[in-house]
Each structure stands twice: as structure tokens, then as C-alpha cells.
Amino acid sequence: MPELSVVIVGWNSREPLRGCLDSIRAARPTVPIEVIVLDNASADGTAEFLRREHPAVRLIANRDNRGFAAACNQGAGAARGACLLFLNPDSRVHAGALDSAAAFMSRHAAIGIMGCRTLHPDGSLQRTARTFPTPARICARIAGLGRGGRGGGRCGGRFDYLQGSFLVARRQDFIGLGGFDERFFLYGEDVDLCLRARRAGVGIAYDAETVVTHQGGGLDNDRVAHFI
User: Fold this and answer.
1) 3-state secondary structure the chain
2) What is the band of 228 on the pLDDT scale with cuts at 50, 70, 90?
């Protein structure tokens, strides 16, 4: 039985996904894992690529683009692990990252959701632990006055929610919260999930010892989710 179910949702992301799966293989996790890829009707041959080169990966090929939140919930429903790792296809896990995430969740029973130290491809820190948006913060970001940009990551101090590019959720807590709200087609579902978790008393943590690299980050939350 897997301890960690890695759920990856993609849409026309074959090449980023190739690198993501290669990084999982290269990380050589010792903890039992399973990898589930939800392909949202890609036209770039993603499904064929997975069947040909990664037969051990469980592929769920949707006939239409269901959106990120709905596909994540679909993957969670098919997963068997005690913990779910929602991983973006343009992410690369570092050596030991999967073992580290599983160990963190095992050590901290009160934590239901965790994120990790996330780097830009150039090695600078990506901001993935944030405070909830408010009108004042939205205006500050629009005006360019808020803290942000490359290297503006928050490793310590107060934060409210975690970016969904690498998000571990304890299965029982994720199900108890009702999963991601499928009204969010793309972006904002991570903010909403963490908001509901905070209100329900589910612990949220940032683990700086678990490290990944994420290609994206420019559009995540800053331009979209802060306007929900």
C-alpha cells in the first residue's frame, strides 16, 4: 500500500511532465509511492507518451478539460495513499524530497496540509507561503508596492496559505474538507482549500527541509487568485 500518492494534473504539458516524472524516478524514494497522472484531453500526445514510456504510472485520460481542481479531486478519489501530493507537471522534486515530505507528515499528526521550500530554476526562492489576500494587499501588488518578485519567498513568520504547485494533504483531512472547490477551474483553489482548513482547525505547515524546483510561479496566485 503506498504511503504517498503523487497526483499530477496536466493539459498539453508532455515535455514538462517528462522532466517531472524523470525527477521522481531520480529521487529514488524509499517510501512506498504511487504516481497518478490526470490528463485533461491534451492534444500533444501526453497519454500516448505515458503509456509508452511510463507504464507504471496510473493514467486517467479525461475526454475533456475538467480543470485543475476537478481533476485533482478525481485523482484523489483514485489514490490509495494516506497522504496526497498534488504536484504540478512543471515541478522537479529534489533528491530525498518525497521521503522528507512523507516523514514530515508522519512526525506531525496535527498537520493536515504542508508545503515546502520551492526554488525558481535559477535557484532563487519562490514565494509559496503567503498571507490571505485583502483589498489593501491587492492594491499594493497592483501598484508594485507589495513584497514579491523573485527571491521574495517566505520561509518563516506568519502565513495563511500555501501555493498548490507542491501541496501535501493528509487524505482524511482533504476528504473531510470536501477536496478542492471545483468552481475554481484554474488558480485560487489552493487559497480556498487553506482558508477552509484554517477555519476547520486543520494544521498547515511549511517544511523548509523538503525542496523542489518549480518552473512556473509568475502567474500563480499573484495575478489571478488574489482577485477571487
Assistant:
1) CCCEEEEEEECCCHHHHHHHHHHHHHHCCCCCEEEEEEEECCCCCHHHHHHHHCCCCEEEEECCCCCHHHHHHHHHHHCCCCEEEEECCCEEECCCHHHHHHHHHHHCCCEEEEEEEEECCCCCEECCEECCCCHHHHHHHHCCCCCCCCCCCCCCCCCCEECCCEEEEEHHHHHHCCCCCCCCCCCCHHHHHHHHHHHHCCEEEEEEEEEEEECCCCCCCCCCHHHC
2) very low
